[in-house]
Design goal:
627 residues; alpha+beta; Nucleotidyltransferase, domain 5; eight-stranded mixed sheet; five-stranded mixed sheet; 21 helices; 44% helix
């Protein structure tokens, strides 16, 4: 396992040097694909690289996290402030084990105005329900100083800052009125029209349009000064300073709403020689919920006149099946220009036929230009990162194609590992990878014959191959964990099926360095018909794909072993029950869904029905458990 960890850390250390130097969020994944941690950064490359630096002096928890990381992804944002908001959304979505903050659902704040009230205030809230009864601004991220700003705005515009109960129960103005910080609408000392004008000016500050509000306040300051009410002028000056500071930060924060309130998706493509990168920005209620990133082999879509029509339709079909989220009413697709009405109609018609929902398709829009440009950069950066030689699965598969002299790039690979637990019960594990990723629905276990001569890897590999070839739907390449003997036996078991077979085996090499001998382990590919093996370059794309499959086959094999061991432990007490032979034990094993303690609470008749055994056996089990 130490070797596996070193391999993955070396890979990640290399990969982070190719991340963009822009704001965004990063996600770390475990070996099973679980999201371990979500973070934000002003500079993604610098921040992520800090986790893997040799002099990293983080907490023990951080060091433990790094040991668990097996993959990463990133999402670009327009600003550091938007990265705060996106981080919040991603943490709520994935619930990462190593994120402590925000696990309590503490959200970024909003400010709202309840339009149903006669004299509404501007309220600070962390959870809001956006509907027609209220105006909602935000969310506002860390650094926006929203709480202090709201207090100053209410004071400067003399808006109410009391609860509904206090407001309705007052018969005379409160102390804030006497301090000139409230206009006392509770006792009708201000008209609805005047109050509404002040409220609109105050609201404009949180919309990011504070010009009129600041002009109004500065005029008020001048009047106070002319009337020699200097204390009032000073208080108002302090409020104006807070509001101006907030307005400046607002430009950077952009409230993460960006003035958008609709649901829409932005679809961008990056076309390379062999692949199509698809990046879809998800905007819901005006909030950027991140990207969905995919890539495809262009050869899969060469027959289509416009390949991305099918790609877009494929995405929305899967999205509809796998997501509880609502579909957008608008989709902006790169390359669908206003003049090309036929293409837009083709996509709209296809979507409506497939997902039974009308979605309006657009080409580009000035209003969403920043997001479209950002999404375009996301698809380009995804391609750059993956196309880098040490991370591209396509390069690995093309390398394998060259080594094996195949006509096409192999995309479906199967790897086999034979194991014998405690000298008996031989099994083989089969793991499948498609385009370099695990295809777990096609994982299999094979229970093999126990041979009189004991362990015989060659015979067992031969049996696995014979049984596998009968099932049909064969992969492009078989991978065998073993050397020349195992590979030869597997090829014979295929009985002439024209499928490439390779083996992966370790070999130890020695080299002299400064008068000392260093021993290292190499990974070799055993290829039928070739005298010499092919040495995999450590850290290369092909090295990672092949060794990951071998390690996954080992893990899947161990899982079966653990299941068997658990069953043996759980049922070891049956050996002490009179009259239970091996066949009955197997039957009980298949039917038993209770612990020994739970079973002891049943009557003999209930045991009979629960385990599907005879009356005598049930009575023997009952007597044993009762003693």
């Amino acid at each position: 396992m130490a070797q596996d960890k070193l391999k993955n850390l070396d890979y990640l250390k290399t990969i982070v040097t190719k991340l963009p130097k822009t704001p965004g969020c990063y996600l770390f994944y475990s070996i099973s694909g679980e999201v371990l941690y979500v973070g934000k950064a002003k500079n993604l490359r610098s921040r992520v690289a800090s986790y893997f630096s040799s002099d990293h002096k983080g907490s023990p928890k951080t060091r433990y996290l790094v040991d668990k990381i097996r993959d990463l992804s990133f999402e670009l944002t327009e600003s550091d402030a938007e990265a705060f908001v996106l981080e919040n959304i991603l943490i709520k979505k994935h619930r990462p084990k190593y994120n402590i903050r925000l696990k309590d659902d503490k959200s970024y704040p909003y400010v709202i105005i309840d339009k149903t009230k006669k004299f509404p205030s501007i309220e600070f809230r962390r959870r809001v329900k956006k509907d027609k009864s209220s105006l909602c601004f935000g969310p506002f991220v860390q650094g926006s100083n929203i709480s202090k700003t709201l207090k100053e705005v209410l004071k400067a515009f003399s808006l109410r800052d009391c609860s509904d109960y206090e407001f309705s129960s007052r018969s005379e103005p409160c102390l804030l009125f006497q301090m000139h910080q409230c206009s006392a609408p509770c006792v009708d000392l201000i008209s609805i029209e005047d109050y509404k004008k002040r409220l609109e000016l105050a609201a404009s500050i949180f919309k990011g349009k504070p010009k009129s509000a600041l002009l109004y306040l500065k005029k008020q300051m001048s009047l106070f000064s002319e009337n020699e009410e200097f204390e009032k002028a000073l208080l108002l000056r302090d409020s104006v300073k807070v509001i101006e500071d907030f307005s400046e930060s607002f430009k950077e924060i952009a409230s993460a709403e960006g003035g958008r309130s609709e649901d829409l998706d932005l679809v961008n493509f990056h076309l390379s020689d062999h692949e199509i990168d698809l990046s879809i920005a998800i905007i819901r209620g005006g909030v950027h919920f991140g990207h969905k990133a995919f890539y495809y082999f262009r050869s899969d879509f060469e027959e289509d006149g416009v390949p991305f029509i099918r790609l877009v339709c494929q995405f929305y079909i899967q999205y509809l099946i796998n997501s509880s989220d609502t579909l957008p009413k608008k989709v902006f697709i790169q390359g669908v220009d206003k003049e090309d009405g036929i293409l837009k109609k083709q996509i709209e018609f296809s979507l409506e036929q497939l997902i039974r929902k009308k979605i309006k398709v657009f080409g580009s829009a000035k209003r969403n230009k920043n997001l479209i440009d950002l999404n375009n950069r996301q698809s380009e950066e995804n391609y750059k990162l993956r196309s880098y030689e040490k991370s591209s699965v396509l390069l690995a598969l093309k390398k394998l194609q060259t080594i094996l002299s195949l006509r096409e790039v192999p995309r479906t690979l199967e790897c086999y590992d034979v194991a014998i637990f405690q000298g008996k019960s031989p099994t083989a594990s089969q793991v499948n990878f498609f385009d370099g990723a695990p295809d777990k629905k096609n994982y299999r276990h094979y229970h093999l014959k126990e041979l009189e001569e004991g362990n015989n890897d060659f015979a067992m590999m031969n049996e696995v191959a014979k049984r596998r070839v009968k099932k049909g739907n064969l992969p492009d390449v078989f991978i065998v964990d073993g050397g020349k003997g195992q590979v030869t036996s597997f090829v014979k078991g295929l009985g002439g099926a024209q499928i490439s077979v390779i083996g992966i085996a370790k070999s130890k090499t020695k080299s002299n360095f400064k008068n000392s001998t260093i021993q290292s382990t190499e990974e070799r590919l055993i290829i039928p018909g070739r005298k010499d093996s092919y040495t995999l370059t450590r850290g290369s794309a092909l090295f990672r794909v092949i060794t990951q499959m071998r390690d996954e086959a080992h893990r899947f094999s161990r899982r079966l072993h653990h299941q068997k061991e658990n069953k043996k432990v759980n049922l070891s007490w049956l050996d002490s029950v009179e009259g239970i032979g091996e066949k009955t034990k197997v039957k009980i094993l298949n039917n038993l869904k209770m612990t020994k303690q739970e079973l002891s609470k049943l009557t003999s008749e209930e045991i009979k029905h629960e385990l599907g055994v005879s009356v005598n056996i049930a009575q023997n089990i009952y007597d044993f458990l009762s003693n």
